[in-house]
Each structure stands twice: as C-alpha cells, then as structure tokens.
Amino acid sequence: MKKNHLWLIAAIVAGKGLFAQNQQQDTLKVHQLHEVVVSDSKFELKRENSGKTVIKITSEELERNQGRTVAEVINAKSGIEITGSRGRDGDVLGVYARGGRGRQVLILIDGVRVSDPSTFSQEYDMRLLSPTNIASIEIIKGAASTLYGTNAATAVINITTKKSSDKGIAGRFQTSVGTNQTTADQNYNLGSISNAVNVNGTLDRFSYAVDFSNRYKSGLSAAVTPDNEEDIFSHFSTNVRLGYQFSDALEVAVYGNQTKFSNEYDASYADAANLGKNQQDRAGVAANFSYGKGSVHLNAAYSEYKTQSKDTFGESETEGNNWVLDVYNKYVFGKQWHTVLGVNFIKDEAVFSEMAEFTILDPYANVVYISDFGLNLNVGGRLNHHSEYGNHLVYSVNPSYVFTTEKGYLKVFGSYATSYITPNLTQLFGAFGGNPNLEPEENRTIEGGLELKPNGKLRLSTVYFNRNEKNTIGYDANFTSINLSDEINAHGLEVELGWLPVDNLQIDANYTFTERKGDNAIRIPKHKANLTIGYQWEQTQFTLGYAYTGSRLDTNFMTFSNETLEAFSLVSLTIGHELIPNRLRVFLNVENLLNEEFTEVIGFTTRGRNFRAGMNLNF
Fold first, then answer.
1. Which residues make Cβ contacts (< 8 Å) with residue 8, sequence separation at least 6?
2. CA distance 162 to 157
3. Could you tell me which residues are beta bridge partners of residue 402?
C-alpha cells in the first residue's frame, strides 16, 4: 500500500465531475437555527423554550465530515476538548468538558448510558464509535444528573443512530481512502481506508436495518520515534435493528451491536511490539407506548466489554459488563406543563481477582413549564440509591425568559444544578487501593447566558459557567483510594455564532475560555476557537475550517514534570460535488492544510497535511 499514491484517485474523482460529498444542493439551509431540543428535557421543545444552549450535530454536518471520527467532529464544538483526536487513529482519547475530566462526561446511545465498568475511570471508549451509523448528536453541557444520573457532571453526549427508511428496501455504500502522514514525512502513501454499507427498510409494520463498517489506518507510529515505525489500527462494527409497530400506540425494537478494534501502540516512548484489542457487545430493547397526552418509554440494554493488551509490561485482560434499564412516563398537562417521571436501574460488574459489582436504583422527576408570556422553567430532582454508599440527592433549577420579536427572539437563561459521580468498581474493590467506604464525587454548576436570534439567518449565544467539584476521588500516601478534602473550581465563557450573511454562504464560529483551579489543568486549553465557512455553488460545496487550540499543560513522563505546550492552529478544506442527484456524491478533503507541526500529547505523534477522497452511493 505504501507505493500507491492519492493523486491517481484524485484524478479519477475529478474526471467524474469535481470532488463531492454526500450533500444536496440545499446543504446550507441553516438547519441548526431551527432545531428542536430533546436532551435537556426528554421532550421535543423549540430551542427558544429551552434554558440551555444545546449543541445539535445534524446528519448533514456528519455527511460533510465524512472520513473524520466522531471525536474529531465533537472536538470542534464549544466547551469541549478531546485530546488525542488530532493524533494517530487509535490513540487513547481524553474527553474534557468545561474544565472537567472524562469521568464527568456521560455518553448515551439512543438514550442508553454506555460505559466500561472494568476501566479505571469507567469512561466510554469513543474509539468504539462508528460515525457511519449515527443520525445526529446532541450535546448538553453542564450538570445533568437529574435526568441522566451518574457521570453527567460537565456534559452529556446523546448519540442517535439511523432509523429505517419508509421504503421496502434502501441502502447506502460509503468508501474513502487517504494519506496518513506526519508533518515531516509527506510521502503521500495511502495509509487510511474506510468502508461502510447499510441496508434498511420498512415492510408494512416491520422495520429492519443492518450495517457494517470498517476502517484501517497505517503509516504512523503512536509514539514519536526516529524511524516512525508504523502502528496499525483496524476497526470493525456491525449493527442490527429490528422493529415492529404493533399499533399506532405501541412500537417495539430490538437491536444488537458488536464493535472491536485492534491497536498497535508504543510503551514508554520505546518502539516495541505492543498490541491492544478491545471488544464491545451490546443488545437492547426500546419500546414506546402512547396514550392521550402521554407516553411510556422503556430503554434497556446489556453490554459486555473485553480488553486485552500485550506489551513490554506483560499481558493483561479486563472484562466488564453492565445492565441498564430506564423507564419513564412523559405527560403534557394542557400545553404548558411537560412532566417526566422515571426510574433508572444500573448494575455494573467487573472481574478483578474475583467478580465485583454494584447496583444503582434512581427514581427521578422533571417538570418543564412553558408560559404564554415568555417565562420558561425546567426543574428536576433525582434520588440516587447506591448499593455501597446509600442515598444521594441531586436537583436542578433552570429558568429562562424569551423576548419575542417579529422574526426571532432574545432569550435570557440561567441554571443552578448539582450532579454526582459514583466511585467505580476499581476504586471500590480493585486489588490496588480499593476502598468500599468511598462517597460519590459531587459537582455544582451555575450558568447564566443570552441567546439572540433576530431572524432565520443569525443566532448568537453566550454563556458563563462556574463549577465546583468536591469529594473528588484520589489517593492517600499508601495509594488507597480516598475522597480528597481539596475542592476544584472551574469557570469559563462559551460564545457561539451561526450566520447566513448571503444565500448559500454559512458561517459557524465558537470561542471557549476555561480556567481550572485546585489542581493542574492538564491538557485543558484556556483558550480555544473554531471557525467554519461553507459555500454552495450549484452542485458543488466548499467548506473551509479553522481551529485554534491555546497553550496548556501536559505531563512529561520521562521527567515526571509538567510542561507548557505551545498553542497551534489547524486549517482544513473540503470540496464536494453531487454527481447524480440523491444517488452519487464524491468528495475530497485536506486536513492540516498548512502542514503545521504541533504537539498534542508529549511524546506522541500528530498528523501533518493529509488528503482523503471518497464517495457515497445511495440505492
């Protein structure tokens, strides 16, 4: 593969009609200025009636970013830093929102919490996600434990997968190839391949969807080494979903997923034959029953996680599984009161020297009041009952007021919310430092902001947040897990802009200021900004992206000291064209267009200028 060159493929693509992407001519309609908001209330409310600035990543935006990982797409949003997303595919990802750590971000897939109970931080490994099966992503920032429970302290990333077509049979094939090279070694060899196929449809009351995807990356070493000896990453994902509409009121779906990846990596900055294998198996059921002004929803899933590693430190294996059940009733009183009553059950299990487990049973309630004079109020509470530490109460109050104009609105909003993070199985029962007497970490977040939408072509929002973190779990002098007495405070400002200055030209921008006090803000930039400019010319679309990441601290494990990493800026360009309307589209994108050299994590490789070409075929 190293002797193949991208230029040949680019020439073939250009010969078929100028580069393209899966996007129709009306791509630049401002979908995100009109979307409903679901994540912060579990109701489909107009954005103006929400007391948050929820980020919505639409299917159109995901199509424009074909070839990029989910982490890369989310990393361009305000308030979030995903370290590792700019390096070699397969690098461990650190998800930091609002000055927090990965354990404080909750990931949902189709409304079901996902996390690996066998890991130290109990985070969900975002390398398991396949973007080809995702319909949309909603990101709600701030404390959201009242609706979503443990880990929802700084952000909730709610991923919705694609549903079946109304046609009897439909499908899509996606493929792309590209380079995978460093700034110093611009060899233009092909080192990146991605493929996906999906077949779905609806036959009377029966719906089905089956998809498979894989991606392969070579050409880069995980750690910075003199010879850049390549470490290969390969990823495979399969999804099956079957649904049946028993009546107009009752719909039931069952689904299954298997995702696994193999990842070569380097240990201790020394190039060696190190290999990690991760596998996730999930099965679940989703049911909805509607009645009058209400509906009952059930989401349940069982997941198994398995990690194997073989490196210079030896061989190891971890196994974990969890059960998640969420049942809730939504009911609307009149047109003003939207209520949610539910109960959430979680059982986490992992194998250490022996099987360890805990259970969580949380009743919760949420009420949204939408007045006819501009006042909106979102109030919720949850009683967390944990099998180890007992009970813990969290709550949230989120008022907003909307001043309507002839074509838009001005929204003023604020919130006070608490959240919690349960100690994980390793911290409670692990062989090294386990302490079954741990209490949950507690978070408190205060927010206040404005959102201006004077018309359908402009939206500007700004929000200030202040977060306090206490009972953080750390270690004592004997390396036993304890709740630390020191508190951590983070505050910041997030600004977002969506603008259509003229027809077919769209500008999206955001800026984030984050300051964390109480410990070292490792890998959290104080300043971060993103700018995207998209232009549609007949069947061709041009998207120019700019991303600035400010200076931040990182730990050099060779010297065990913290160092300041320099700020850097990255520019990207995507050109797309629709060859056959609604059928065939091709694209070419260039990442790190200016081939800037930068460090994301000390000692680990980052990508230089890279090209990718691909196509989408709908059938």
1. none
2. 16
3. 411
The pair of three-digit structure tokens given for residue 403, joined into one six-digit string: 């001043």
What would the two tokens of residue 299 be? 């989401």
507 φψ region: left (φ > 0), alpha (ψ -120 to 50), beta (else): beta
Q: Does residue 434 sit in helix, strand or coil?
A: coil
Q: Are 595 and 146 within 8 A, CB to CB?
A: no
Helix (H, G, I), strand (E, B) or coil at 358: strand
Q: Hunting for tokens 């009752």 — which residue is that? A: 250
- Do 541 and 575 touch, CB atoms closer than 8 A? yes
The band of 267, judged by pLDDT with boundaries at 50, 70 and 90, is low
Closest CA to 540 of 173, 32, 12, 17: 17
What DSSP designation does 181 have?
A: -
HSE value, Cβ hemisphere, 13 Å, CA-based, for 55: 29
Per the rule left: phi > 0, alpha: psi between -120 and 50, beta: everything else, 73 is alpha
Distance CA 276, CA 314 (A): 12
Mean pLDDT lowest among 19-28, 38-47, 497-506: 19-28
Query: What residue ranges in 64-104 does DSSP mark as E strands?
Result: 80-83, 94-97
> pLDDT-derived band of residue 225, with 50, 70 and 90 as boundaries?
confident
Question: Using the 8-state DSSP alphabet, how is residue 439 labeled?
Answer: P
Secondary structure element (H or E) that encloses residue 529, with its range = strand 527-537
The secondary structure element, H or E, covering residue 7 is helix 6-16
Cβ atoms of 449 and 141 closer than 8 Å:
no
Q: What is the pLDDT of residues 509-522, one digit of tens each?
A: 999 999 999 998 99
Place of tokens 């909003």: 413
For residue 541, CA distances in Å to 544, 573, 617 come to 10, 11, 17
Indicate the range of 13-22, 76-85, 216-225, 352-361 predicted with least confidence.
Answer: 13-22
DSSP characters for 473-485?
A: EEE-TT--EEE-S
Strands 155-161 and 105-109: parallel
Task: Please tell me the distance from the alpha carbon of residue 27 to that of residue 534, in angstroms, as a whole number.
Answer: 9
Amino acid at 16: K
Rg (Cα) of the chain, in Å, rounded?
Answer: 24
Q: DSSP letters of 243-269?
A: EEE-SSSEEEEEEEEEEEEEEEEEETT
pLDDT digits (tens, 9 = 90+) for 339-381: 999 999 999 999 887 899 999 999 999 999 999 999 999 999 9
Residue identified by tokens 């159109």 is 60
Tokens of 169: 């049979």
Euclidean distance between CA atoms 100 and 80, whole angstroms: 9
Whether 603 has a pLDDT exceeding 60, the answer reads yes
Length of the chain in residues, anyone?
A: 619
